[in-house]
Design brief:
The protein is mainly beta. It starts with a strand and ends with a helix. About 45% of the residues are buried. Helix content is about 10%, strand content about 40%.
Length: about 425
């Protein structure tokens, strides 16, 4: 008998959710030295257009106003970027500026292909929470054109009466903009989703070279400092198309963000997950830098992670190939509850759990000898078959609330009593 109660709720990709991002047409390498450049040629053609022709081009843009808030501002910003490359663009009329911005922009459907690998944390503002229930924030990995990964958000609530309910996302999504830093040597990328009215409107798609091919598997963490200050943090994998590294996201009201690379030998891997508070005055992290075992790392610096020690190793048939964490540890009365994933036969990804000592998390108190969740006959097909995977769950009123991805395709939800989960451990 399964420990989990499965929800009928599924979150599927939605191709209608788009953002505006830069479009930069260039000649292929053998023609790279062509004069004028392709950008200059397009700008010169727009500057030669008459007023009626410009108005006709603006009519093509008009329907996008229903899909994007502040479209004119986005196109103006894009025009300004182009004008720094092509000085002739500075003589453009207001109408021509809009058209230039549009020619060098494109709509991007950031979750058209997949929506999966969720993580979940409780919202600080519990206004509107159902009786005995909780409101939550959900992050998800969306995949769009070119297999590029982005981060999108949802809000929702859970109660024993209603189960999982996810709020309908906004029809409009806000493109991330980089705020320039005036601090020399600053390695922080500051992101502004200007005009975002709720978390579902904020989208984080790659904006730095280290993220060129994707921002993958955000593991949200509601971090509470010793002084009671709450930070919304999250580790994620930055992928440039060849190499991966771990970076840290800090979210402010989920319309402004900071992205910062982690340093140290352990940060060159993926799948890191931060403990939600200091332990003995130090930051603590789970990692899997050898891609086989779950490691425990401690640091005095949130952004630098070295060494560590093996914590949980493959032991059972379902995790024989490798193991990893499924999000940040969850503090309960009995210790630290860690959800794990294991890779077994035919590259099946299943999920289990472990309990760590609250005062010394290097001590593993118990583990589930059998998976608590494995690919089912009904839910195993997708882009990567035979995979169930989560980037973070939460506990409310002694109930584990577990969002998870299926086959790198869509997201589902399940719950179970914490007492039943602990009883299944040995």
């Amino acid at each position: 008998m399964s420990l989990l109660t499965h929800s009928k709720l599924h979150l599927a990709p939605d191709a209608s959710r788009t953002v505006i991002r830069p479009f930069d047409p260039q000649y292929p390498q053998p023609f790279a030295d062509t004069e004028p450049s392709r950008t200059e040629r397009i700008v010169d053609a727009i500057l030669a257009m008459g007023a009626n022709e410009l108005k006709a081009r603006e009519a093509t843009i008009a329907p996008l106003h229903k899909r994007h808030r502040n479209l004119d501002r986005l196109l103006q910003r894009r025009y300004e970027e182009v004008a720094t490359l092509v000085p002739a663009a500075e003589q453009a009329s207001d109408d021509a500026k809009t058209v230039i911005g549009a020619y060098f922009s494109e709509e991007y459907s950031f979750e058209a292909a997949a929506l999966f690998n969720p993580s979940m944390i409780p919202l600080s503002d519990q206004t509107g929470a159902p009786k005995g229930g909780v409101r939550f924030l959900l992050s998800l990995r969306g995949i769009g054109e070119g297999h590029v990964s982005s981060v999108t958000f949802r809000t929702g609530h859970w109660s024993k009466r209603d189960g999982f309910v996810v709020d309908k996302p906004s029809k409009q999504a806000i493109s991330p903009q980089i705020d320039a830093s005036d601090v020399p040597g600053d390695d922080i990328t500051r992101i502004n989703c200007e005009g975002s009215r709720d978390p579902s409107e904020s989208v984080l798609f790659p904006v730095t070279p280290s993220q060129r091919q994707g921002i993958e598997d955000l593991r949200l963490c509601r971090f509470v400092d010793d002084n009671g200050t709450v930070d919304y943090l999250g580790t994620y994998t930055a992928f440039d198309g060849r190499a991966t590294r771990s970076e840290l996201l800090r979210g402010f009201h989920f319309d402004q963000f900071e992205m910062r690379p982690l340093k140290g030998a352990a940060a060159d891997s993926k799948g890191m997950a931060l403990f939600p508070r200091l332990v003995d005055g130090r930051y603590v992290m789970l990692a899997r830098q050898d891609n086989e075992n779950i490691w425990l790392l401690r640091s005095d610096d949130l952004y630098t992670w070295e060494g560590g020690e093996k914590l949980i190793c493959p032991k059972f048939s379902w995790d024989l190939c490798q193991m990893g964490n499924c999000g940040s540890p969850i503090e309960i009365d009995e210790g630290w509850l860690v959800l794990t994933h294991g890779v077994g036969l035919v590259r099946n990804y299943s999920m289990g759990a472990a309990l760590l000592d609250k005062h010394d998390p290097s001590k593993v108190l118990a583990r589930t000898p059998e998976p608590i969740l494995r690919p089912s006959a009904k839910e195993r097909d997708g882009y990567v078959p035979n995979v169930v995977y989560s980037c973070g769950a939460m506990v409310h009123d002694r109930t584990l609330l577990l969002p998870y991805g299926i086959a790198d395709n869509f997201a589902a939800f399940a719950s179970c009593a914490v007492d039943d989960l602990l009883a299944a451990m040995k």
